[in-house]
Amino acid sequence: MLSRLTRPRALAVCALPVVALLATAVLAPLPFSLAQPGMTANVLGENKGEAVITVTGAPTRRTTGQLRMTTIEATGPDAHVSLGDVLDGWFRTDQAVMPRDSVYPSGDNVKEIERHNADEMKESQDEATKAALAYLGRSASDVHVTLRLADVGGPSAGLLFTLGIIDKLDGDGSGGDLTGGRTVAGTGTIDARGRVGAVGGVGLKTQAARRDGATVFLVPKDECSDATAELPEGLRLVPVTTLKGAVSALVALEKGKGPVPSC
């Protein structure tokens, strides 16, 4: 036997599936990661009690200023990110919503991801050493470089590692520091030929850099628009595409003459 529903009751019954669907959408996990500014480390100094750059087989310089590599911190691959989290992240300047696959391209297994990131860091360090020694005309058979950076993975510190090696061995090439005594930060991959590559997350990295005292930020040129979107006050962007260009820009800043590119 069927009974006739009043209009208010009928609307209420019809609304229940919609409410349930909306609640499910809000609470269901989504394939995104939430990222925020992470730690930075001065590659010319120490990190967790260990020198980041150690050189044997050649004299090194006492440097001033800092070269700070930058990072982002992201929710883990198995973290529950809901629609509410995503909407909140879109409206915040200190947080970014990123596709999980772009943050963790190697999958969802935490140990595999850690291995993948460690492998990328090791390759980045090897390429940085090759690029620096090639730039200086030094032989790897005579100069040995060890790079240590605990709890950091991925390739994005390559450019800063390379500049740090150059500053420790040669400075600006005429007795001065490559940094000019400033706190310089940046990001970017590098290959053995000195080509700088994009990395992602630069908007958050500029915030981390300014938070930790940087006034200059080296950014892969292709990421200028991302870097300028939420640029912290007091931070100067210097776009680079090659190691040679990065060194030339820093020397021009240090000496106060010559062209310094800008985004």
Automatic annotation (TrEMBL):
It comes from the Bacteria. GO terms for molecular function: ATP binding; ATP-dependent peptidase activity; serine-type endopeptidase activity. Residues 142-236 form the Lon proteolytic domain. InterPro entries: Lon_proteolytic, Lon_Prtase, Ribosomal_Su5_D2-typ_SF, Ribsml_uS5_D2-typ_fold_subgr. One of its GO terms (biological process) is proteolysis. This is Lon proteolytic domain-containing protein.
